[in-house]
Amino acid sequence: MTSSRRRPAAPAGTAVAYIRCSTEEQAASGAGLAAQRAAIEAAAARHGWIVTEWHADEGVSGTKTTEQRPGLAAALEAVHTGRAAVLVFAKLDRLSRNYRHAVNLVEDAEEHGLAFYACDGTVDMTTPTGRFQTRMWLSIAALERDQISERTRAALAARKAAGVRLGRPSTLPADVVARIVAAKAEGKSLRAIAAALTADAVPTAQGGKAWHASTVRAVLVGQDAAKLTA
Q1: Which of the residues 50, 101, 124, 137 could staple to 96 if both were Cys, CB 3.0 to 4.6 A apart?
Q2: What's the per-residue H, E or C state across the chain?
Q3: pLDDT, tens digit, 9 for 90 and up, residues 181-205
Q4: What is the number of domains present in the chain?
């Protein structure tokens, strides 16, 4: 990806579209590629944009990095090299389900003067007002994440001080427990965490294929999770 600030000027009114869905989401109403394409086409028509490129990651989790998603890498390359003026996607979670990754992408766009646009209104870097609102939204999300993390640490510390045994040891690999703890600290819901684990085919502690909110909750109250948040 080009990092130079002196990128070629993109043709006015041009846009590159990015669509993504995981294996689980392919059958979900409103989450499929066709629904995302329709939302992007409608937005482009409203703004008078011409979509010159379409890039997709089909059957790929939004928790994957840019390097693990060739479609996203190609879409970002298009705006970084000036082939298109705007990167359009249906929703922020299509760009990334990982909060830190999403923030890094938006901050990088801001630094390089790029324009991102989410059809659901969460991100709009095409106007000064939109850029301001995007920064405010990211700041609020970061504050909520930090507050949740702080409350979790305080609650666990209080229980430890009271001599409460914090759950049972987990039979999950340490990296899976760490992923769940990190996702919760970022403010993700139990259902969202479960959906992402299922989409990535991560086995449950009993070797199952499907994660549920209750399964994730059981990991978070376990001893292994408590050690990571101590």
Answers
A1: 101
A2: CCCCCCCCCCCCCEEEEEEEECCCHHHCCCCCHHHHHHHHHHHHHHHCCEEEEEEEEECCCCCCCHHHCHHHHHHHHHHHCCCCCEEEECCHHHHCCCHHHHHHHHHHHHHHCCEEEECCCCCECCCHHHHHHHHHHHHHHHHHHHHHHHHHHHHHHHHHHCCCCCCCCCCCCHHHHHHHHHHHHCCCCHHHHHHHHHHCCCCCCCCCCCCCHHHHHHHHCCHHHHHHCC
A3: 989 888 888 889 989 999 999 998 8
A4: 2
